[in-house]
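#dry-run=false #mode=assembly
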Amino acid sequence: MTPKIRISDVAAIAGVSTATVSRALSTPERVGKDTREKVLKAVRATGYRINAAARDLRQRRAGSILILAPNLSNTFFSRIFAAIQEEASAAGLIVQISDSRIGREKLATLGHDGRADGIILLDGGLDPELVNGWRLPVIQLCEWNAAYDAPVLTVDNSAAAGLAVEHLAGLGHRNLLHIEGPEGNVLATTRRDGFLKAVGDAGIDSAVFEGDFTMESGARAAHRWAALDRRPTGVFCASDECAIGFISEAIRLGFDVPGDVSVVGFDDIEFADRFNPSLTTIHQPREAIGRTGAQYLIGMLSDDGTPTAPDYSIAAHLVTRVSTGPAPQ
Amino acid sequence: MTPKIRISDVAAIAGVSTATVSRALSTPERVGKDTREKVLKAVRATGYRINAAARDLRQRRAGSILILAPNLSNTFFSRIFAAIQEEASAAGLIVQISDSRIGREKLATLGHDGRADGIILLDGGLDPELVNGWRLPVIQLCEWNAAYDAPVLTVDNSAAAGLAVEHLAGLGHRNLLHIEGPEGNVLATTRRDGFLKAVGDAGIDSAVFEGDFTMESGARAAHRWAALDRRPTGVFCASDECAIGFISEAIRLGFDVPGDVSVVGFDDIEFADRFNPSLTTIHQPREAIGRTGAQYLIGMLSDDGTPTAPDYSIAAHLVTRVSTGPAPQ
DNA sequence: CTGAAAGCGCTTACAG
DNA sequence: CTGAAAGCGCTTACAG
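#status=ok
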């Protein structure tokens, strides 16, 4: 590695002080024309780049935001991360990512170690005391926890579950199954409660099977469903992955989708449209969630961390595809 | 936000110097027992946490590694990122992510701004001059560019393409189609050349359609394939997404998979196993690639950046599922 | 074992 | 318009 060039090297070559080099680079209008040119020439000659870490320390900022998500390998997050990164980059901020389940001590440190200016949290399952102890602006995306002292940006999960039920009821289904998300997860709870409220309102029979958002849990639920005497003809899954697991396993068991059973997912992941049969699902605007969330956090950074805006809800809608159809006779 | 606590605050409360506080925290064995306890008490009372940004500046390191990938919303990367993050976290390093197509100037800065100790590069399409100008250890993962002066960790893409051809030939297919990746991409080129070599060796008819790894490109290729007079009965796609797009569109056009056409993908993404029909594909061990790559880069950091190890190849293998079967008569 | 001082590489009031 | 000096929050030879 060639040795790094510092501002003092540039200053020496240009024959000026480091203060002048600094100004020539950050506020060129406050430097004389000749001096500025001498400095820029020295910068070009050396290939000097500002050491952002040193600048940020001096300016008492970190120059970056941190994304915390419960499982980085979950493909649901990809588009959200991409949108956040774009917004951050436009604002001159670096994006850090970490799994939010890295352990209490490491997690506690993240909010105090001077390496991030703010946190985007996609995990509602952390200890509120820990989260509220962070001395940084925090925004919650998708998942949330009412005990966190931080604004939330998410879709109305309960209402969205209602859309799924209405859709199935409109197709004549009178007996619905919900495969829920993991116990204790706020999305799981909200979607299930929305389902139960909607079936109650519509006077439709219903059942709930446990699940955990994964394809495997959907496949397991398919076996349990197949073994029932009186099988529900419509299934609302708490996630697209769960729905894909359910459908693929139901087909392997010899059932037809949507001939024998209609299935609705949640999320509208990339593959929903290309799955066979293509998946009727609730569209979550992940790009918009990431983008808006990042913009909001960035706003909080310049506004001194005061979360002025209220919780913000983004519209979710139903996308009708092939996995749902009229109830069988 | 409550004001941040500095090491000098702790020192004042404990009645010692900041040097002693620093030692009590980083090398406690070099501090007297009583002193150490006084310091730790003050740390607990204040909730002090070391400012990692200041520590790192003093120690002339960044304490983080940077992942650069051409498209963060590509779900292929998720598991790789997760593995990298785990390894980095174990080594006390933060993980930064950025899209590698953020623009030449920003990209150039990343290798010089003191915010990263090393770079994991998943993009073989950047300007070599720019990449080689970075004053940081770099490792290439999955994609590579021979003009980059950095070690590579990837699978043998050409040999893997050969496995796909052998598999189809073994099922009796005598006319194969390859849907390639984007022009100029090293993975696309290597997989295509591996395909062409294998069909040549086996004396099998072949054709190549253009594509770009996406589901849309697979769907477009399906239309083009369907319009042929003498349709190839076996298709090797440069990615799973492309294969999924091809199959879903072929089915919509009324064909049966694998009855009318067998399809092989590349990557073995999570959905390959649950797609309908489940997808025969080349398994890329993404977890291992991420983990090994991170370990290697971390090794380079402590070894003063000298890339001692040679390029490293990870084994890929064929996973046989339902999307391939005997050639139709 | 402990402290005073220097320094990581910058920026920014403060003078002039 | 420019420079000398202080300081961001730490760590680490150097003394004692």
